[in-house]
Amino acid sequence: MSFVSNSTGAFYERSLGQLATLRESAESFQTQIATGVRIQRGSEDPVAASRLRQLTRLEVRGGTEEENAARLRQDLEEASNQITGVVELIQRARELAVQAANDTQGETGRAAIADELEQMAEELFTRSNAISITGAPLFSGTAGAPAFTKAPDGTVTYAGNGQVGTVPVAPGTSIARGITGDALFQFNVAGTPTSSFEVFSQLASDLRGAAPDPAAAAQAALAGIDEALNAANRNQTIVGTRAAWVEAIEDDNAERGINIAEKRSEIGDTNLADVIVRLQQTLTALEASQTTFTRVSNLTLFNAI
């Protein structure tokens, strides 16, 4: 009788364990179908769970790099817009200098040209202190303050630094934030340091009578104006090249993000067709096991025991 009792207990224990396993599998499949997520706990598939964590880290880093690239592109586009304005001002200053160098210009004509040059110098100063969409100075390097300051006598001085810093925009890739104001507005003329602001203001002053020969002064100013234009064009090219680079990086990042998402879906998402079939099989097995358990439990031998 003890042997029969032990066998009966083992039968019940084994049967109930099998039924519990089938119910757990069915519940797991139902959860996968409801949530669309294949792995509910890391213990279900440790290797896949580890891979999913790696992909999550890549997605987070990729999201940060995409945001960095987008902000950098916007900053570079704004810098390009401002430099385009600077180039136009310098080109107009050159036209005015050529006019002023003409001996036929009288005092009144030269005064009008000086007025326009002074207005343009103010706009030049405004553009030199342009800010990004986040409010950061575009041309002060990493100083974080206005790029240029103006003294009471009108002297303009660079207040930024020579460090532009870099922005991580992709794995292993960082791009310089922009350009510095000293590179854009300061240069040498015949070995003498000067700036676009000084060239404009000096020409305006010469045309108002500070120079004994205003026409000759205007002619001489062309050298400084040309250097100012060279500096602006050179930096415009640099900014444009970096902006194009960022756009290419953004395209690569988008493609990389799609690949990561596809891999994540492949590893972690529920294959509905497969899981539905497996659920149906499990439910069928569960129903059959329950029926068998009930029938066997009701056999005379068990009843006798």
Radius of gyration: 38 Å
Fraction of residues in H or I helices: over 70%
Order of helices and strands: HHHEEEEHEEHHHH
Mean pLDDT: 83
Distance between the termini: 8 Å
Low-confidence stretches: none
Number of strands: 6
Total domain units: 2
* The CATH C-level class name of the largest domain: Mainly Alpha
Binned strand content:
5-15%
The CATH architecture designation of the largest domain is Up-down Bundle
Using the coordinates shown, work out and report the CATH topology of the largest domain: f41 fragment of flagellin, N-terminal domain
Q: Quick one: overall form?
A: rod-shaped
Q: Number of helical runs?
A: 8
| Biggest β-sheet description | 2 strands, antiparallel
Judged by helices, strands and strand pairing, the structural class is mainly alpha
Give the name of the CATH superfamily of the largest domain. f41 fragment of flagellin, N-terminal domain
Protein name: Flagellin N-terminal domain-containing protein
Coiled coil: 62-96
Pfam family, one: Flagellin_N
GO cellular component, one term: bacterial-type flagellum
Question: Could you explain how this protein is built, in words?
Answer:
The protein has eight helices and six strands; from the N terminus they run αααββββαββαααα. The chain has 305 residues and is mainly alpha-helical. The chain folds into two domains: 2-36 and 270-304; 82-263, f41 fragment of flagellin, N-terminal domain (Up-down Bundle). The strands form three sheets. It has a two-stranded antiparallel sheet with strand order 1-2. It has a two-stranded antiparallel sheet with strand order 3-4. α2 runs antiparallel to α6 and α3 (107-128) packs antiparallel against α5 (196-210). The mean pLDDT is 83.
